[in-house]
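Q: What does the assembly look like in three dimensions?
Context provided by user:
Components: three
Sequences:
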Amino acid sequence: MTLLEATDLEVVYGSRCHECLSSTGSRAGTNQCVNCGSVVACARADLSLEPGDVLGIVGESGSGKSSLAELLALEQASEATVRGDLQYAGYDGNLLEIDYQTRHDLRTSEISLVHQHIRDGLNLEFTGGGNVAEKLLSAGHRSYADVRERVSDLFEETEIPVDRIDDRTNTYSGGMQRRVQIARALVTNPDLIVLDEPTTGLDVSVQARVLDMFRRVQREENVATIVVSHDLSVVRLLADRTLVMRHGRIVESGLTDRVMEDPHHEYTQTLINSVI
Amino acid sequence: MGYVAVTAGAEIIERAEELFEKQRVAGEDADLTVEQIDGQLGRLTDQAMSEGGLYAPRLAALAVKQAQGDTVEAAFLLRAYRSTLERFDETAPIDPSDMVASRRVSPAFKDVPGGQILGATKDYTQRLLDFGLIDGDPTDPTEAWDLPEEGDPEELTNVTEVLRSEGLLHEPDAPDVDQPADTTRESVTHPADRDEILQELARGETGAVTALGYSALRGYGQVHPTLAEVRVGDLPVRIEHPYTGEEVTVTRTRVTESEAVVPVYEKRENPQFAFGYGLTFGRNERKAIGMTILDASTQLETAAEPAENPEFVLDIVDGLDSFGFIEHLKLPHYVTFQSILDRIRAIRSRANSNDGHSERQPAESATDPTGDND
Amino acid sequence: MTELPTSSDDTGSVATDSVDAALQSLDDEGMVGYNYAYLDEHTKREVRRSMLKAVAIPGHQVPYASRPMPLARGWGTGGIQASLSMLGPTDTFKVIDQGADESVNATNIRRLAETTADVATTTDTTEADLIQSRHRIPEEVLTGEQRLVLQVPIPDALRTVDASDAANRRRHGHRNYGKMWVHLYENVVEYGEIQIASRYPTMVADRYLMDPSPIPRWDVPKLDDADHLTILAAGREARIYAVPPHTAVEPLAFEDRAFTVERFPEKSCHACGSTDTYLVEVSEELGTDDAASFETRYACNDSSFCEKRREDPDLQKDHHLERDEVQWGPMTADADAGGESS
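A: Here is the predicted structure of the complete assembly.
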């Protein structure tokens, strides 16, 4: 049973005229419409995900990978027009058209997003434990002891020192803050996690440890994941399959190994060869 | 057996009022008349009118007298009185260029159509205490002036109109309602529209408006305006005549008006100035200018600083709200204080009985000895 | 935006043909120049409409145009407007502040109502049709015939976690109270229990989070499934909200960190001996030559009930009712879930 099935997804900032799609994309070499000036962040995107799958999305800045990831995580892009069809296991209808309450419930318990920028994902004034607890409390858990225990478990899972659980999140290191985000994303046992540039702002050695931790947790919990990154090594480490995006379009897709070893699209080839 | 309680019948309140009145009673000196206050302490009455939102110079002077000079208290009296009055009508919108200005300066330009008119001001003089005033000096220093014949007041071109005609001023979006809101009749909900913001600022406490405007200039904000114009003068009050339907002028109000341009370009392709506006009853230049800064600041998209956050500004700028809430702290609060004492004692006794163990034990089991709830 | 009709259509307004006449009429006639119950009819209607809306949506804050009153903002102008909009000449009115009828603020409010609304007043809770109170709910059980008006300084329970009204309104609209729950969680982390003293956040009809006003926690259970209507009014903040009769009101708490009321272990009222009422401490100097020696005694906060108890120490809080099993706050005899062990 497929977990997620997306067809013809599209995110456009601006008025969107009839020439938007034809004048943008990989061949056109731009994501900005010549006619009306709208930015076509992504278009004609199809993808599907099975439970437990890890899907990578790579591309450079402006490729549309973050827009696509946020769309799949049901984030509300307020100024953009969104189109397409998004089907999710256990829910009838197009998830892009659901009401506020269902969207909120889904994002609380089933689909988690780890934001690229810490400030969007965490409240730095709360304690680290408080940030993770918030998800549980919003989902209706009312036993302090149970909440406390689950939060401590998550701290251990994500390798954050448990004795820091009651310190303010703004006293944590960057790596620890990223781990809190991941702990928060996992705490309600979601079916799907979207990681948006998970290594942003982290030192190289810290990156490796955080990614190793996530890989372990993902395998243990078998949680489906979409990982978005400009960094090929991140995707290579985590993802079974990979999509390559450029100027808002998916230009290549396939098993990660195959895409990395034997890229078909010339852009992918450039990308792979550019890695130092 | 003594029953301890704080009692204060009506009699005690009356006594307190009488004591307060005693402070004002002239005793052997001559009682200040309302005309004296309006005439010789005009700034006080102007401030009371501006914060009370009611243009009535003699009533304002009476309020100032009753309040012993406390402008917020005087504004309070005026607002309370105002709320009992029947509203006959609303004026027609007035074009500020209809003002007969007794003072008009434009810092933006060296010279402007109509000229820079200093008017009555002490801005450029030194602040030296004039001991000669102790015994009073009733002579009018302008009596000796050699004035030309009286003519009609000159039309002063509004400086911002000059900028508008060149297309340099950003025009705000047209409002999507026909009538401006009346915030004395409908309470403000946020996000507030510009007409609501301007009304609240116009009635705001002078100190608050000045302080917040200062904060924006001081560095807690982006708005460093250039004043296009500051005017003091008489603005006509016009209504539709109930019989003929024509617009007629029924009276004039003295106002201070201020307009500023802000070099924050609204659009890159077609750069224009942003624009701030201020208007108060009576002469009160620092409040009008402060209002201008706050109008411009609150229109910015970002609200990075307090002066730019419309919710913050509107919440704190009203003198009667702030005065009332601050002074209400003098009311008895012993019921809630008892509740607070209960909390701190419970926490301290829990801390002591834990005997040095850290309270922050994960998954500590809860035992509540009194477990009272429904 | 609806066009509001111009002010009052009554005949009792002050003379306005000239300033002199206005000053004259006010001076001579005092309150006679004002409408019944001070406010004009239009204002009263608007306040009542807001109250009806508040009753229709329990716990939801309804904005209304709070009028300037002869008392300062912060001194109960919201409560007064609510009371004056409801009072009629046959009503009996009780006003208390901090539980006392004789306190300065209560006396002043009572004066205004007596003069402008010509109502009878009382200190006996069981005799009142309308009770306006600052920070307490009386000890004696209120019935379905009575109305309670509570004075509210800060109408939004979420103000503790976010100062922005706009953001909080969105949270209320979406029933999104996660931030308040984290606040409670962090309270327990810091202090071992929920540290909130008064203004305890409560859920009304399982839908809106409400600030019950600065009543002590002792009084919060009285709002749950009450027989009477409670109106909560904030003048400076210009909001009205309500708890209709028989509405569920539940203070926020964890299953294992229950809501607790204030405790007075082994204390009793020194005047009437009660051990089942909300007490306040009173410190007195001992009349000896000992410098700075104080004695702390406790007294019932509800002074009119205390007076009754001094006559009859066994008087129950529901003595004026004929039925049993009244649920009314901690330690009301026959209340379900009992009271504290003292």
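Follow-up: Chain C touches chain B through 98 residues (CB under 8 Å).
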